[in-house]
Amino acid sequence: MIDKNVVKNLVEEWLQDKEYFLVSIEISPDDRIVVEIDHADGVWIEDCVALSKYIEDHLNRDEEDYELEVGSAGLGQPFKVPQQYINFIGKEVEVLDADGKKVKGILKAVEGNDFTVGVEEKVKIEGKKRPVKQEVDHVYQMDKVKYTKYIISFN
User: Fold this and answer.
1) Which residues pair with 95 in a beta bridge?
2) Which residues form the Ribosome maturation factor RimP N-terminal domain (predicted)?
3) 42 φ/ψ sector (left φ>0, alpha ψ -120 to 50, else beta)
4) pLDDT in tens, 110-139
């Protein structure tokens, strides 16, 4: 089986001096390698091809046969690395917290493992008969939520 660290090192070599970042590497028992990269402005197919060729040039098919797929982290897919959170600051996201509660709001900030989402909620204000819609900040930890993903809007 192909060593994941070997592939990771190859990807990181290729990524040096580029604005891309590694999202994930998966290697199945039958040596199917799936590499996901991302970029703040999206991923170009030409760069996926270049990374794929770079990996193939450094792995020996005579030693081990493998299938290689290089692509981008799909829009609308859950975030896997902190850089994805940073790239979507100011955008609408959906969070499913550890308790199974789903909220939608604007990703406002990322600090270390924590991120803040501004959510429109009805809030009871003293002196008012009816609750008023107001933005309430919710702070989550990346490793404590079930998922966070960008909400694609066509408006």
Assistant:
1) 103, 148
2) 10-75
3) left
4) 999 999 999 999 888 888 888 888 899 999
Residue 95, Cβ density class (10 Å: 0-12 exposed, 13-18 middle, ≥19 buried): buried
* Contact in structure between 94 and 151 (CB atoms under 8 Å): yes
**Rounded-to-integer distance, Cα 41 and Cα 61, Å:** 33
The residues near 127 (Cβ < 8 Å, ≥ 6 apart) are none
In angstroms and rounded to an integer, the radius of gyration of the C-alpha atoms of the chain is: 20
Distance CA 75, CA 122 (A): 30
- Tokens standing for residue 43: 């991923």
Residue 75 scores a pLDDT above 90 = no
**What is the reported pLDDT for 152?**
83
Where does the pLDDT of residue 62 fall: very low under 50, low under 70, confident under 90, or very high at 90 and above? confident
Neighbours of 93 (CB within 10 A): 20
39-49 pLDDT tens trace: 988 889 999 99
**Residue 53, phi then psi, degrees to nearest 5:** -65, -40
